[in-house]
Specification:
The protein is α/β, with parallel strands linked by helices and about 290 residues long. The chain folds into three domains: about 10-65, Nucleic acid-binding proteins (OB fold (Dihydrolipoamide Acetyltransferase, E2P), Beta Barrel), CATH 2.40.50.140; about 70-225, Rossmann fold (3-Layer(aba) Sandwich); about 235-294, Probable gtpase engc, domain 3 (Ribonucleotide Reductase Protein R1, domain 1, Orthogonal Bundle). Helix content is about 25%, strand content about 30%. The chain has helices at about 100-110, 130-140, 160-165, 180-185, 190-200, 235-240, 270-275, 280-294; strands spanning about 10-15, 20-25, 30-35, 45-55, 55-65, 70-75, 80-85, 85-95, 115-120, 145-150, 165-170, 210-215, 220-225. The protein has a five-stranded mixed barrel. Strand 8 (about 85-95), helix 1 (about 100-110) and strand 9 (about 115-120) form a beta-alpha-beta unit. The termini are far apart. GO terms for molecular function: GTP binding; GTPase activity; metal ion binding; rRNA binding. Its EC number is 3.6.1.-.
Length: about 290
């Protein structure tokens, strides 16, 4: 007797929580799905093939080739953030204070995946800390990174057209207002996350998992959990150098081919730093990144 052949269906991961996933099928139907093995390397935004295993449930059988994968890593493990995104939106705020090194690391990660990137400066209605936040972002503005000042509590109209046609992922530290932004852009977001939390039994929702929301047929937004660190252990030394656009005119100009740009004589990067062409804080972040991945 032949075993019953299960029909494969295609869908998109719209929420990832541990080894449980919410999959949206082409019809719009939502299923709770699991992976077959213990190890899970599925990310929010992944396009997958599933086989139904029961009422409203399924098993993930395959992941389609990805256009991009944003993830962070340390020496021991990697943490997937989102797949198939085309734009990273780094959310910072006038308060609480933010880490410019985290921004640098996000930019290096974006560069490694060839993704568009934009910094959103939230809470701009708070005038007192605004100048300080803008000064902290000045080195990124000088590099040509687009910075959009806004207040998610007042209006997100300036942001909407910049999302069109993209699958964007919001990344940033906790407290920067990513969820407020999401709720302003996606009116049903709170209801949807509540529903996902109940379906995946993940309790109270404080963005402990990434969630994808569709704004229209061509546009999607992924809200991700707050980051306190962004390890890039998976990048090579060359990949890290290329992630700093201000280094590029000087790469290959050092006396030594394998120059680490630390104390070597006739180092083009150190000379550019001396001339004020490279921001000292960015250079210090580069050295820390290099040391981590050595």
């Amino acid at each position: 007797m032949h075993g019953e052949r299960r029909v494969k269906e295609s869908g998109t991961i719209v929420a990832a929580h541990g080894r449980q996933y919410r999959v949206e099928l082409a019809s719009g139907e939502l299923l709770n799905c699991f992976t077959r093995g213990k190890k899970s390397d599925v990310a929010c935004g992944d396009r997958v093939e599933i086989a139904r295993s029961g009422d409203g449930q399924g098993v993930i059988d395959a992941i389609a080739p990805r256009q991009s994968l944003l993830y962070r890593s340390n020496a021991f493990r990697q943490k997937l953030i989102a797949a198939n995104v085309t734009q990273i939106l780094i959310v910072v705020a006038t308060e609480p204070s933010f880490s410019d090194e985290l921004i640098t690391r996000c930019l290096v990660a974006a560069e490694s995946q060839d993704l568009a990137v934009r910094i959103l400066l939230n809470k701009c209605d708070l005038e007192a800390p605004l100048a300080s936040a803008q000064a902290q972002l000045a080195p990124f503005a000088q590099l040509g990174t687009p910075i959009l000042p806004l207040s998610a509590r007042q209006s997100v109209d300036t942001l909407r057209p910049l999302l069109e046609g993209h699958t964007s992922v919001l990344v940033g530290q906790s407290g920067m207002g990513k969820s407020t932004l999401t709720n302003a852009l996606v009116p049903h977001a709170q209801a949807a996350t509540r529903e996902i939390s109940e379906a995946l039994d993940s309790g109270k929702h404080t963005t402990t998992h990434a969630t994808l929301y569709r704004l229209n047929a061509e546009t999607a937004l992924i809200d991700s959990p707050g980051l306190q660190e962004f390890g890039l252990h998976h990048l090579s030394a060359e990949g890290i150098e290329q992630g700093f656009p201000e280094f590029r005119p000087h790469l290959g100009q050092c006396r030594f081919r394998n120059c680490r740009h630390e104390r070597e004589p006739d180092c083009a990067i150190l000379a550019a730093l001396e001339r004020g062409e490279i921001d000292p804080r960015r250079y210090a972040a580069f050295l820390r990144l290099r040391a981590e991945t050595a």
